[in-house]
Amino acid sequence: MRTNEPATYLVEGRHLTEAQCRALFAELPLSDRHIKVLDRIEGDTVVDVGCFTGAFVREATRRFPRKTITGVDYFEDNIRIARLLYPQIRHCYQQMSVYQLGFPDATIDCITLQETLEHLEGAALAIKEINRVLKMGGVLIVSVPNPFYIWRIAAFACGETGNALRRFLRRPQRLVTEVLSESIEWDRHVYAWTPQTLLTLLTSNGFEYVDHCYESRVPDRLRRWLLTALPFFGPTQ
């Protein structure tokens, strides 16, 4: 049955119109983390798993016009938004689950997994599936929030629900969840990966360690100065 109601897209629990999506997401600058990932891409076939609204894939296609670059996301509205924002490469976006990637064995040169692993209940199963589709010697580039991020530590200790502050004030200790959107099943953090636990997950499932780094080019000057001296306190690793 046809309807004249305008299309909407579910974003952080809100139903946004096409115009609102374009205003919110179009031409957002890439983060330092995105740039570091772009610099590490190898091979001719690249898949960005958990592509969200497609900005990274769009920039990758600009930088590497001869590579085959695909963005996948299991959440249908993310794929719809990516195709809305970047109609000229709409064929680059596909809906699929990280637990069941629609690629034959050993066919992909490089997979990027950015700010996704912390959302997954079956992280090891996802890594096994990624290993299945990567070629021998292929590259997996992972980024996750850094649990040692200096602002995160400060907020835990001294923020509104900070345990150190509450202990000093003789108030009961408290914890808060990281549910980012109540109405979107995936939009919460269920794991915090330290460098050691992330490396253990990867090496236990067929990968070899190559390199690691931290996001350091953040907007404000004070944090940039701190992260120049202490990069391992960056927001992502």
Describe the structure.
With 237 residues, the protein is of the alpha/beta class. It has a domain at 8-145 and 194-220: 3-Layer(aba) Sandwich (Rossmann fold), CATH 3.40.50. The protein has 9 helices and 7 strands. It has helices spanning 18-25, 32-40, 55-63, 76-85, 123-133, 150-158, 163-168, 195-203, 221-229; strands at 8-11, 14-17, 45-49, 68-73, 93-95, 108-114, 134-143. The strands form 2 sheets. The chain has a 5-stranded parallel β-sheet with strand order 5-4-3-6-7. It has a two-stranded antiparallel sheet with strand order 1-2. Strand 6, helix 5 and strand 7 (134-143) form a beta-alpha-beta unit. The longest helix has 11 residues, at 123-133. The N and C termini lie far apart (48 Å).
